[in-house]
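We emphasize that the prediction below concerns an isolated chain of 583 residues; any contacts that depend on oligomerization or on bound cofactors are therefore not represented. The input was used exactly as deposited, without trimming of termini.
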Amino acid sequence: MKRLWLLPALAIIAIVSGAQSARAAYCGAISYQGCSNCGESVVSDGTVVDGASPVADGAASANADGSYTVMRNVTETVYEQVQETRYRTRNETYYEDKEVQATRVVPYTEQREVQYTVMVPTYETKTRTINYTVNKPVYETHEKVINYTVKKPVYETKTRTINYTVMKPVYETHEKVINYTVKKPVWETKTRTINYTVNKPVYETRTKTINYTVMVPVHETKTRTINYTVYNTVREDKVRTENYTVMVPEQYTKTITVKGGHWETQTETVPGPMMRRTVREPGTWTYDPATCRCVYCPGKCRVECVQGCPKTICKKVWVPTCEEKEICCTRYVKECRTREIPYTVCRRVPECKTKTCTYTVCKMVPECRTKTCNYTVCKMVPECRTKTCEYKVCSYVCEQRSKVCKYTTCKMVPECRTKTCNYTVCSYVCEPRTKVCKYTTCKMVPECRTKTCEYKVCKMVPECRTKTICVNKCRTECYTKICKVKKCRQVCEPYTVTKCVPRTVCKQVPVTVCCPAPVCCGAADACGCCEPACGCSKARGGLLKKLFGGRKGCCDSGCDVAPSCGCDAEPTCGCEAAPSCGC
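Result of the prediction step, given as a token string:
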């Protein structure tokens, strides 16, 4: 039961030791085989050797941590752009001329006489008498005595002393020491080597043949007969009789009434304008027990209307008069007359004709052609390079420093002061006064007057008149016009298409393989075999002997390689690798 828990651990160790892909033998000799499709590359002493044998003759150098760099072939798909000419058919629209018979409307003008009635205004002068009333102003002068009191100001100068306090600033200077830390940068230069791989382009020119089709136009001449109609114009002279009216002047005499008159100068008295003024009534004195003195109370203000002085003006008045007068007038009387007017009539006579037209028809015939295109293919070949870079490292060192700061303090100290002020006191003294006011009173007295007015009366009298008007009419006319007929045909045209063609490119990529170096031991076992060279410990072999009681010998450790000493017999443990001494 104590040995059962070791079984899973032993199974894991056996699986790990059997799954190693890279085998190390012969005290450090190592080789790696490359890709079978694109050549082989072997890493020896840190340098890539192209086309080396599958097994390296010398020992490969390893890094400090036991890792190795090999070049592995990787297949990559590259897309190239190739232009290809294709053909497509599109519908093209074209137009042909065609003669069509059409009808249009032609306007013309015709004259005729129209009788109409007009209302003519007739004016008549009339007279009427108007009675009206006028208010005539009558002015009257009055006098009035007004007693009033006036307050006269009396000024008196006085003096008083004022005590006040002023805050006076007092300044004081102090010093203070401040300690602070400054970080100073310290720069250090270092160097490191960088290994990198550069892909160098290798260009290769190739040729390919492209077959394409070109549409070649073939022209063909055809003939067709067209029947069309031509309209000839035929003129014909005619005469028509027309009745018209003429206005003949006629003289006559009539008596009219003419308005006249003359200007007369009249004198008129105009009352003065009404004015508004404010009048204050006399005030009263009242004893005030609060202040122990008499207080003057002014009277109320009232607004009264006062009429100004009358004015005498002169104005001119037009006095109309009526006079009768004979005048000579002209009037127009209608008179009917007849006249003959010649005119021409045009007629369109159709005539059928025939013509032959020649036209060309174009056909597109496909034709196969061939052209050769040259294109360039680029391959990237890896190249190992080394460069040395210098860089700077910055570190900060703390440094203690000190500085002295000066500052000022201000304090406000109170200070008492005194000043003298002069001021003026005003008191009012009452003084009685008297004045006489004159005012005018206006009264409006009504007065009756009469005036005569002339006015005109208008009457509308009907009157018959005649006028000639133009009437617009239309007639139908046939004509021939050329219109375009829309037709469709198919045209083949070439166009270019750019497409991507995939191509497989093989390139080498550096790969780091992690594998520890084997250790060779010099001590021999009791059977003449040395310690295993695969890194297996002797203690592990002794543990297996204790657990399972296996056979004696160095092969009990379970290593993948044979002993490196000169044994004559084959190993008894069934190891996979043959010994390196020729047994």
